[in-house]
Amino acid sequence: MITSRLVLRMFLMIYYLCPSFQQEPPFVYNGFDQAGNNLHLDGGARILPHNGALQLTNDTLRQMGHAFLQQPIDYNSSEPVSFSTHFVCALLPAGYPSGHGMAFVVSQSTDFSHAEPTRYFGIFNASSNESTAVRVLAVELDTALAPELKDISDNHVGIDVNSAVSKLSANASYFSDKEGRSIEIKLLSGDPIQVWVDYQGTMLNVTLAPLKTEKPSRPLLSAASINLTEIVQGRRMFFGFSGATGSIMSYQYVLGWSLSKTMGTLQNIDFSKLPKVDHPSYEMHIRSRLSVSSSSMARVLLQILIITSLHLISPSSQQETRFVYENFTSQENLYLDASAKVLLPSGLLQLTNTSDYQMGRAFHKKPIQLITSFSTHFVCALVAKPGVEPGHGLTFLISPSLDFSYAESTRYLGAFNASRSPALAVELDTIWNPEFNDIKVRGGHVGIDVNDPISIEVAPASYYSKGGNVSLNLLSGNPIQVWVDYEGSMLNVSLAPLEVEKPSRPLLSHPINLSDIFPNRSKLFVGFSAATGNSVCDHYILWWSFTTSGGGSLEKLDISKLPQVPHPTSHPKKLPQWIIIMIVCLGVAVLAVLAGVYFHRRKKFSEVSETWEKEFDAHRFSYKSLYKATKGFSKDEFLGKGGFGEVYRGKLPQGREIAVKRVSHNGDEGVKQFVAEVVSMRCLKHRNLVPLFGYCRRKRELLLVSEYMPNGSLDEHLFDEANGFFLGKKDLWLLRE
Known about the structure:
It is a single-pass type I membrane protein. Helix content is 17%, strand content 34%. The protein has ten helices and 41 strands. Strands 1, 3, 4, 7, 14, 15, 16 and 18 form an eight-stranded antiparallel beta sheet that branches. Strands 2, 5, 6, 8, 9, 10, 11 and 17 form an eight-stranded antiparallel beta sheet that branches. The C terminus is likely disordered.
């Protein structure tokens, strides 16, 4: 019995004293040498065996590292969701610039297969937002400025909810209760930094301080309305850390960590037990001191070697490389890769066309000796496709190899990728990428790149003339001259339009040591690279001259011999299908209406023709002509009405006035009467009879055309009471007698 009690007490003592047995907070890690069983590590994360520090990332490019508690923390429905944590971290630069940063994370899961490195900290990606499946609360310590993520600086702290865009951020600092003011903290100083994150209710507080400073009374960040159960969609949560690098790197360490479900039970970190931070910069400093001493000795030995062996050197042993491509018709010394091709018969070198995500490279096939000086002069043209965003650009490139299987298109210009690779490039870039230190200007920019697409020197595309700096539009489609001169350790880049002499002042000047860029390399290749992405354009090289003997021995450019640059014609945009259908339907409807009107008018003026008409040889008028002559049988032209029908006055196109009688008839008898009248009037001719000009027959309408009598009818003269002339029946009988 005593033995069992002793064993139980020993177990409890080990449980409370040894962090490796703790699964639920509160707990404290003063170093992580005994925490391996309780932590889930992936990516670049590891526990350093020599000091027990938790390292999230090192100086590897585009790296992610995650360290989480192996077991999630469950909150039952009866207890409030709250926590308090205190950790000590250190971020050490691995070159300049350095980045990207690390984050304390509360997550729904430890599966970060969707995540990306660089500015996404290994927990988010480019499509992450508050509606995605990424369910994360993060407190970021960010050391790289990403304007597209609304970063405020390259040294800030932020609160992120399901996205790398911070809900709240502030420059890294702490409030000094002693001095009564905020004091800046440099995250990348390499010094240990304390971080407290406290969550209770819906309030999240974040506080920073140097290592041996008490927790400030005033937090750096306070965010209200943070509902943790909504963020992670439940009451089961994983706690831990994440870090990431990109093309810029840093060492990211967690030295100690304390976590509790409530603030009152948070255990203190013992600073004396924390592991010491490895400072690679110390080793670099020692090496640099040794290299200075070694270089001094090397200079003395080199001078002795040069003096003693100068007589052995003959001019014939100094190899000079010099070539010119007046056009690229002859491809004997040309190495073409990917989409690059020569357009015949002009000899124009096309690196890319207007297809998406293309790369094209063209190099002088023979390598050149590692050089102390060179000059090159080339003419290029970037032609945009009408109606499409143009991009990305081209580079003059010096590389130790022709193997670019690692290269990527888009902003990497077919020469680089997200990792570093030995190359020197002069870029003509037409797309703004702030993560590459690009400048946002119209017309594009020019940059000098060493081993990655982050330019070490950049300027808007322009050239210097007597009147000052003149802007150039790289995407104008016009040929542009480019000069790249390397002498000693200075690289100069100049631009100018086609018919302008080389400017006396270069656009870019930067010290460069080719031996540092290409160590242990005696042969280098020179050429061009270009790329497209969603943004596309044609990249052309028209002419190229290169020499290792300085700019004075470059071949002169003969503008008259340059090939013509093809410019795509802009095609009108196709109309949407629904508009085409509407136009067709409208056209059909208009044609139908016109056809209806035509047939209606044709039917309206249609006439009847019979055999008797030819027999009597009477003149026949068209109904249409009589209709027009009488103004459509207008009331204004109405003359009178007799026993056989109505009479209208009309006027023919020749000016002759006529009288048109519309004979009323019923059936065949009416037609017979009409025919008889036509025949009789045609045969009878007398000076007292009204002459008949012709007739017209239309369906059931019978029309007689006679001469118009302006003096009226006999009836009017005999029975006109209005004019006081009236003959009664007695008078008429007297006249008859």
